[in-house]
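Q: My collaborator sent me two sequences in one message, no labels, and asked for predicted structures for both. Can we handle them in order? The first one she listed is below.
A: Yes, handling them in the order given. First sequence, followed by its structure tokens:
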Amino acid sequence: MVSSLSNILPINIVGTVSGTVASGTPTTIFSRANVQNVVIVTENPIPVSLVGEVGIGSRVKSTKTSDQAYTRANTPTLIEFSDSDNFDTDGWHDPAGADPEIFTVPAGKDGLYLIASSAFISFGVTGIDAHNIEIFVDGTIVAGGGAYFSSTNLAATDEVAMNVVDIIDLVAGQEITVGIQVADTTVTGQTDTIRSATISIVRLGSTV
């Protein structure tokens, strides 16, 4: 990524870089393992003060591959991401901890986030119910998606996919969870199964 006085592109840097870029010679002012060097080429010395992030910001992705049974009810069952994290840049999540369903916004990482989650479920009983997948922040639902599914047309081994995605302002210390909830139940108290699930949380930039 190269920016000159004749072709200036917006760039963000993790941390703070301050000083004066020397004249005439390309100067590497920041480097990180997962991005290319950031280079500014100038014809004259200019003051430099860059704050922000290079590339993608703070992020976590977790994948659930083990079964989790849940009971059809009008209260959510939180998905336990207890298998593995694909990546976790800032200690968002502990899959082996006491609360594998919780993702906590790290200190200093306030911002605007893209949150996406999906789950595959299979039905253990017949009936037509509204199954929802929902994102919660500190226990309050902020986004949801789902549909009416008829398990009378599905075998017990069939899987139905549900997805939810939203862009949300978050501040440090807030807890993000994802749950499955069955509303308008025709068959309550019966057991279905979450076969697999994923969640991705990616910082897009500063809060709006």
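Q: And the one she listed second?
A: Here it is, processed independently of the first:
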Amino acid sequence: MDLSAVNKTLIIDELLREIKTTFHYRTDEPEKCQRDLEHIYDAVVNDYLENSDYYISIIANKFWYMNVRQIKRFAVEFKIYELLETKLIESGAEKDRLSKIFDTLKNIIEHGPNETAESSLNVAASGARRCQRNWDYSKSVAKKDVISLTDIAITMPAKQARTYFELIVSTDQELNNFIRKNNLNISVIRFESVVRIIFSKKIPKDRLQRDILEKKNNSKRVKFINYLIRKNIIFPSNGIIFLNTSFSLKEINNLTDKIGFGLKKFFS
């Protein structure tokens, strides 16, 4: 069973309804519950596909800081995890294989982190200290390394020390080649199904700088957005594009063709 084909949104929505009805007393910030459940869901799917407990261990370890658990009670969380496990089994996942992943999650939350040398962010940070300038584009970075390095980027410096913090990681080499080949005065940052077009070649360090850089190309940006509207594509006001994972390859190709044509037309 390929869990990546399961409708994540429907399952998360059902879990949130359970929290809001049965366990409404547990939190007054359900949006944080949704964020955490999405991280856990993704980790479970990745571990299930790779037959490991690597990703769920990373998520579970975050419940601890300086050897102190960051939540006092976890009975409700475990009830929701059990419901998630049930939903995935109903979707066709193998029970024994899935149970090992959820057992790891609950065991770490209850008894403490299990960071190993392989899963430690310190190891990933040490490997990232030197800048490699001779890239081998024929090779790809392992998903677990992308996740570790992304985790480093979003946890240092602390978000509270910045007026604005946004990180989207792109591993799409074809997209990067398209921009370079056509000499487009834009940048694209991407992580999984989330894409952000920046209307400047320079990657901004924060939102304020991004707004200043994009202001120079505002007239071209307006023409580009109007072009997309004529092609029945609505470009979001915040510029962040969420690609539906249920899109067919034909639909994805149609979007990229039209967006690519518009970018070449107005930003070459």
